[in-house]
Amino acid sequence: MKLEGKIAIVTGAGRGIGRDTALAIAAEGATVAAVARTQPDLDETVSLIKKEGGTAVSLSRDLTDIDQVQSMVDTVVKQFGRIDILVNNAGGYPSEIYDSVGQQAIKIWEWTEAQWDQILKTNLKIPFLCINKVVPVMIKQRSGDIVSVSSRMGRIASQMGGYAVAKAGIVTLTKTTAIQTREYGIKANAVAPGIVDTPGQRTYNHNVGQDDAVMGSSAAVAKGILYLLADSPAEMTGQVIDMYTTV
Questions:
Q1: For residue 156, is it within any domain?
Q2: Does any domain span residue 134?
Q3: Residue 35 located in a structural domain
Q4: Angle at 11 between CA 24 and CA 3, to 5 degrees
Q5: pLDDT in tens, 184-237
Q6: In 92-113, which positions are buried (b, 16+ CB within 10 angstroms) versus exposed (e)?
Q7: Is the confidence at residue 101, as pLDDT, over 50?
Q8: What is the CATH number of the domain that holds 135?
Q9: Of 83, 183, 60, 188, residue with least CA distance to 133
Q10: Residue 116's closest CA among 53, 74, 166, 154?
Q11: In this structure, are residues 118 and 55 in contact, taking their beta carbons and an 8 Å threshold?
């Protein structure tokens, strides 16, 4: 097992990419702390891991709150003594970023301040706070591995407004973290998937009248994350893997 003995935090682990990533990491021997807001979803993820013989615990936290992020870190360190892996997956976007008929993304000048603040809070503040609180633990260990989930919308010119800006921010956050932590034996990379078939994405597609959208697999994204954690060379840091496949 490629990650045997590792302690991993996976955010947004209640479903979708986060759940599949937690399952993939646990299958390689890591102990997983599955983190999200919704306890029943987390309990199901942990149950699935344990059915396959893996080890996992659930932590219900609101990761937009710095105190709850610190609590997550403190709880994992107290229980397991270290943090070897952080997967920053929590995030998402509301249907409100499209117009009332679901045909066009609202223009940058049409966003309200509250909408803008909320989407940056959900998609960029969370990974920042997690990195901010986890990296000091990894520095003490002189080792660690961080993978964040961006999006193709953060890699190309896009109509997606604040969501694209936030996901592009994750790319720069990843590269900055990589530069600043390399001397401590820490790696920071990211994946940038296209549209992925998850419960949240299907709900979003329905809300905006795109039920027939072609989507990729969350399990495939999890494989990309697992590659960065288990198979990529030590020198591979500050990189973003574009995953645009829609089959």
A1: yes
A2: yes
A3: yes
A4: 35
A5: 999 999 999 977 666 656 665 655 566 666 667 889 999 999 999 999 999 999
A6: ebeeebbeeeeeebbeeeebee
A7: no
A8: 3.40.50.720
A9: 83
A10: 166
A11: no
Predicted local confidence at residue 246, as pLDDT: 47
Distance CA 92, CA 66 (A): 19
Give every CB contact of residue 195 below 8 A, 6+ residues apart in sequence.
201, 213, 214, 215, 216, 246
Rg (CA), the chain: 17
**Domain span including residue 227:** 7-243
**Residue 194 carries which side chain, given as an amino acid letter?**
G
Q: What is the pTM of this model?
A: 0.91
- In this model, does residue 100 exceed pLDDT 70? no
* 175 has a pLDDT exceeding 50: yes
Residue the block writes with tokens 């994992």: 76
Q: Is residue 2 domain-resident?
A: no
Active site residues: 163
**Helix locations, 28-125, DSSP H:** 39-51, 66-80, 113-120
Domain count of the fold of the chain: 1
